[in-house]
Write a structure and sequence with these properties.
By secondary structure, the chain is an all-alpha fold. The chain is 87% helix and 0% strand. It has four helices and no strands. The longest helix has 101 residues.
């Protein structure tokens, strides 16, 4: 009987010890779960902060690119205005040079001071005037020089316009190809960075096309002005 009691007590002790061990293990598992949750939450927070930082950096880069494109457009506009002013100044200088040349002393033959000869017959009703002949010749020479200068200027502007037209066509084809690629990337749900890169390149191409178009309009306007001045 005593042996049975001792065995029963021992079993009860073992059972209590086992239950304590089970309880301890459950507590450890619960703590591990809490630790896991904390780690997962921390990872989510870190990922969120990283994503926000990446988005902020991308916005800053996009803003810098936009500002850079605006500056480039301003520079191109100023360069176009400078070229237009240079063209006008060059034309004025050429006209001035032509006027200076026409004002130089002329030879006796050009001025109308033709030596008298037996075969020269003077119209008594309209006496020959060297001064009038010289003036008429100078006016004719001036008109011819102006026409030549104007024609040369128009040819130069037409060459520039042809170059801008070809460049505009090339950029337009490139823009169409890039827009197609951008749409494909959007349909395939590519990353936002890839789509944004397409958008930036498209915006740059459009700015370059606008720049070419502005120069084409300036060339057309200059040609019209020169043609009207010839009339």
């Amino acid at each position: 009987m005593q042996v049975v009691k001792k065995e029963h007590v021992q079993v009860m002790r073992n059972q209590a010890q086992y239950e304590r061990h089970i309880h301890q293990l459950k507590n450890e598992v619960a703590e591990m779960k809490k630790t896991k949750v904390r780690l997962i939450n921390k990872m989510k927070e870190d990922n969120q902060r990283h994503l926000q930082a990446e988005q902020r950096r991308n916005r800053e880069i996009a803003q810098l690119k936009k500002q850079s494109r605006l500056k480039e457009n301003q520079i191109r506009t100023l360069e176009a205005e400078k070229r237009k002013k240079d063209t006008v100044l060059k034309r004025k200088q050429e006209e001035l040079m032509a006027l200076r040349k026409s004002a130089k002393p002329m030879s006796d033959r050009v001025a109308g001071r033709v030596p008298q000869s037996n075969t020269f017959i003077i119209n008594r009703r309209q006496p020959f005037s060297p001064k009038i002949a010289k003036s008429r010749w100078q006016n004719l020479e001036k008109s011819i020089n102006q026409l030549v200068i104007s024609k040369q200027s128009i040819n130069n502007i037409e060459r520039d316009m042809e170059r801008y037209l070809k460049e505009r066509d090339r950029l337009t084809r490139k823009l169409e190809h890039l827009m197609k690629k951008r749409n494909e990337a959007a349909v395939e749900k590519k990353s936002a960075e890839i789509v944004q890169d397409f958008d930036d390149n498209i915006e740059t191409l459009r700015a370059n096309i606008d720049y070419c178009q502005e120069n084409i309009k300036e060339c057309q306007s200059s040609i019209v002005q020169m043609e009207e001045a010839k009339v």
